[in-house]
Amino acid sequence: MNSIYSFSVEGIEDQQIKFSGFSGKKILIVNVASACGFTSQYAQLQELYEEYQDQLVIVGFPSNDFGGQEPGSNQEIRSFCKVRFGVTFPLAAKIHISGPNQHPLYTWLTQKDKNGVLESSVKWNFHKFLINEQGVLVKSLPSSVSPFDDIILDWLNAS
Q1: Contact 131, 29 (CB under 8 A)
Q2: Is residue 81 flagged as an active site residue?
Q3: Of 27, 29, 33, 36, catalytic
Q4: CA contacts within 13 A on the Cβ side of 156
């Protein structure tokens, strides 16, 4: 399976997020946390989403796997994101990014034998994955890469 389109995940508001519905758009997947040094990236992600929403979908995946920095419930996370950062991009329900209970989507994102492109590992919160308009994984970026880094902007502005 080399496309993300076969995946759907539970949304933070008890809805299903079906990746097949994002066909034709670029997708930025990021694992998020409310009490992390990178949490301010929520504001940048929201700004990026607003600026490019005709061609980009951002999906945030809350997880408590790194440093226990997302201890809240789905309701608390949703409220924090909306009130503090005005987040309107889709958020999944809290999941495991790594370890023995790793969500199948993150298994696909991190294992070349599943995604057909690259092997990667998520080392911290706000790690980013870039998916092209055909649902194919393009790149994995560490937490330190800002949502407005040239790598991401160049990818978004490429035809």
Answers
A1: yes
A2: no
A3: 36
A4: 20
Euclidean distance between CA atoms 91 and 38, whole angstroms: 17
Give the domain CATH number at 105. 3.40.30.10
Instruction: Give the number of other CB atoms < 10 A from CB of residue 13.
Output: 12
The predicted pLDDT at position 136 comes to: 96
- Cα 49 to the center of its chain, rounded Å: 12
Tell which residue, 62, 79, 52, has the closest CA to residue 11: 62
Residues 6+ apart with CB under 8 A from 124: 36, 38, 66, 67, 142, 143
Q: Where does the pLDDT of residue 1 fall: very low under 50, low under 70, confident under 90, or very high at 90 and above?
A: low
- Global pTM value: 0.95
User: In terms of residue numbers, what domain contains 51?
Assistant: 4-26+35-157
Type of residue numbered 24 = G
Q: Tell me how many domains the chain contains.
A: 1
Mention every residue, 6+ apart, whose C-beta is less than 8 A from residue 137.
4, 109, 115, 116, 117, 118, 129, 130, 131
